[in-house]
Design goal:
This protein has 327 residues and is an alpha+beta fold. 32% of the residues lie in helices and 27% in strands. Strand 7 and strand 8 form a beta hairpin. The protein is elongated. The protein binds biotin (BTN).
Length: 327
């Protein structure tokens, strides 16, 4: 093993320990836990301070992590994940065209389930229905590679899983009124806070990989976003640490993905209902070729499709489209 990866592992181990522990820690005990001498621990703490970590030192109680830097880096990213699958491999970029494209074009030998690509900004961020996704610095732009054995029709359920993960994450961090507009819009005060774009690539052995891309407006000024969008910074009138939000989203994603893998789609639907704005509403939905109006009665458990009762009394399932709630 080379020295660099050894150092990174110790850094990761220490950060993980400090991030998980909200109390003061005795230096001697911490040094033992991460297999370092006290001097080596002091050196590592100084290096971390130079990277933007802030510690609080107490003459008797030891020390405590006060705040983490707001700069994406792999050891820190991994330290807050409790996952077996999501985040198994992480790539971090300063700027890319689109994180979905990075994973859709990754070489087949690197198609590891749970791989995550994160970037500080995108210059060709893509949204659903052929739209652009504004991606200036300050937002979260990440994609997750999955190998779920699905057919193409079931892709919508992954938009739901993505949206539930974001809604759950933000709700549990900040307890603010988050809602989901089917299939993938995460709304705050009725404005778009986040979106999900799932795409499929077929590999040479004919299996599919699925890439779920998530964009969240966190520390972005609203003049950099479309009119109908909102950011957490605008809502709270202060900066929000991106990493804390990414941790929570990826941990929630693993939870929902496990429900999917264990065929507990009913539970996913229950989680979705908690945030749904359109269940039981009269809506207009514009698909690629048609426009329908009707009452939203349910979501299909298999593919995430929206089931609406048309005015004629017939039920119709729709897999993709733009929804408007009719008052
Ligand atoms: C939408 O609501 O229209 C979907 C937006 C999805 C945006 C994310 S940002 C990360 C990933 N990369 C992209 O180009 N798009 C998705």
């Amino acid at each position: 093993m080379n020295l660099k990866s050894q150092e990174t592992r110790e850094e990761e181990k220490l950060i993980r320990l400090l991030v998980k522990n909200e109390q003061f820690e005795n230096k001697k005990i911490v040094a033992q836990k991460v297999n370092l001498s006290i001097n080596e621990l002091d050196l590592l703490l100084r290096q971390l301070q130079n990277k933007g970590y802030k510690f609080c030192f107490h003459p008797h109680l030891g020390f405590q992590l006060e705040s983490i830097p707001d700069k994406l880096n792999i050891p820190l990213m991994k330290a807050g994940l409790d996952n077996k699958i999501i985040g198994r491999k992480i790539y971090i970029f300063k700027s890319v065209s689109s994180t979905n494209d990075i994973l859709l074009n990754i070489s087949e030998s690197k198609c590891i389930e749970g791989t995550v690509a994160i970037t500080e900004r995108q210059n060709q961020g893509r949204g659903r229905l052929g739209k652009n996704w504004a991606s200036p610095v300050g937002g979260i732009y990440l994609s997750i590679l999955l190998k779920p054995h699905i057919d193409f029709k079931r892709i919508t359920i992954f938009n739901l899983i993505g949206a539930i993960s974001v809604a759950n994450a933000i709700n549990s961090l900040y307890e603010i009124p988050i809602s989901i507009k089917w299939p993938n819009d995460v709304l705050l005060q009725g404005k778009k806070l986040a979106g999900v774009l799932s795409e499929i690539r077929t590999l040479s052995d004919n299996t599919n990989i699925l890439v779920v891309g998530i964009g969240i407006n966190v520390c972005v000024d609203t003049d950099q976003l479309p009119q109908e969008a909102i950011s957490l910074k605008e809502y709270f009138k202060k900066r929000i640490n991106l990493i804390t939000v990414i941790w929570k989203v990826l941990n929630c994603f693993e939870h929902e993905y496990n429900l999917y893998k264990n065929e507990k789609a009913g539970q996913i639907l229950k989680n979705w209902r908690q945030f749904s704005t359109i269940l039981g509403q009269q809506i207009r939905i514009t698909t690629e070729n048609e426009i329908f109006e009707g009452y939203v009665s349910n979501i299909d458990l298999i593919d995430g499709g929206l089931i609406i009762r048309l005015d004629s009394g017939l039920e119709k399932k729709i897999l993709s489209g733009y929804v408007e709630i009719l008052k």
